[in-house]
From TrEMBL:
Residues 1-64 form the Metalloprotease TldD/E N-terminal domain. One of its GO terms (cellular component) is cytosol. Gene3D superfamilies: PmbA/TldD superfamily. This is Metalloprotease TldD. The keyword RNA-binding does not apply. GO terms for biological process: proteolysis. It comes from Tanacetum cinerariifolium. The lineage of its organism: Eukaryota, Viridiplantae, Streptophyta, Embryophyta, Tracheophyta. Keywords: Hydrolase, Metalloprotease, Protease.
């Protein structure tokens, strides 16, 4: 069976109308056990990480996949993996008072940007996740995954019309990221810009129109169009639109798509994936 151990600490803070409206802290941990037999997969989990809980979960997973099947136990070997992130807890670089003070400071500075601002909401959140993967083939891999985010939302009013704008950012770093280069206020200024643009916005015309996608979150569309179709299971089973098409044109010759999981501090960058495989830079589609 494959074992997946996970421990996660998370928190979130939200300031609205100059008042802390939310402050939460969560601690989650557990282990998942996966047993496979051909196309059948059995999965069980436990919140308790004890030998007894692991044994029960393994038995349950095995009974789901195929009762009575036994396999040879492999000796575990660790991989030489480049660790992208330090083991430090990103939530501890600031005290609770300092976090609230940062939210209040950004709230006040945002309100001072434009007299048309009626409401400001500022929030921040952080996660510190640690995982350990022990696979059936004897692989043993671990990862530390920090993740923080800061958001600003603004509501403006002019001539009886109200509009909203919002912006934020973050990555696999700690809260100090938002203190440097005036980043937190950069999010506030962009949120205000969006809200003011919306004040002048008119309904879009109906019909077929060209669509231009900017960089950033519009990449989600690329993920849906290409990412799922290139997943291993779909191609192993031959059910993907891309199955057996290596070397064939599947897109415009202007199109090159790269999946890079090694870009430090980016949300999608990890030392190892959830199977314990080291991340790498992979060209999915080259020149179409």
């Amino acid at each position: 069976a494959d074992l997946y151990f996970q421990g996660q600490i998370s928190e979130s803070w939200a300031l609205e109308d100059g008042i802390v409206k939310e402050g939460s802290f969560n601690l989650d941990q557990g282990v998942g056990v996966r047993a496979q037999s051909g196309e059948k997969t059995g999965f069980a989990y436990s919140n308790a990480i004890t030998p007894e809980a692991l044994t029960q979960a393994a038995r349950a997973a095995r009974s789901i996949s195929r009762a009575g099947q036994n396999g040879r136990v492999q000796a575990f070997t660790t991989q030489d993996v480049a660790q992208l992130y330090a083991p430090d807890n990103p939530l501890e670089v600031m005290t609770r008072a300092e976090k609230v003070e940062l939210l209040k400071r950004v709230d006040a500075a945002t309100r001072a940007l434009d007299p048309r601002i009626q409401q400001v909401t500022v929030s921040m959140a952080g996660v510190w996740e640690r995982i350990l993967v022990a696979s059936t083939d004897g692989g043993l891999a671990a990862d530390v995954r920090p993740l923080v985010r800061f958001n600003v939302s603004v509501i403006v009013e002019q001539n009886g019309r109200r509009e909203r704008g919002g912006h934020g950012g973050g990555g696999r770093t700690d809260y100090r990221y938002f203190l440097s280069d005036d980043r937190a206020m950069g999010y506030a200024r962009e949120a205000l810009r969006q809200a003011l643009v919306n004040l002048e916005a008119i309904p879009a015309p109906a019909g077929t129109l060209p669509v231009v996608l900017g960089s950033g979150w519009s990449g989600v569309l690329l993920h849906e169009a290409v990412g799922h179709g290139l997943e291993g299971d779909f191609n192993r089973k031959g059910s993907s639109a891309y199955s057996g098409r290596m070397g064939e044109m599947v897109a415009s010759k202007l199109c090159t798509i790269v999946d890079d999981g090694t870009l430090v501090d980016r949300r999608g960058s990890l030392s190892v994936d959830d199977e314990g495989t080291p991340t790498e830079c992979t060209t999915l589609i080259e020149n179409g």
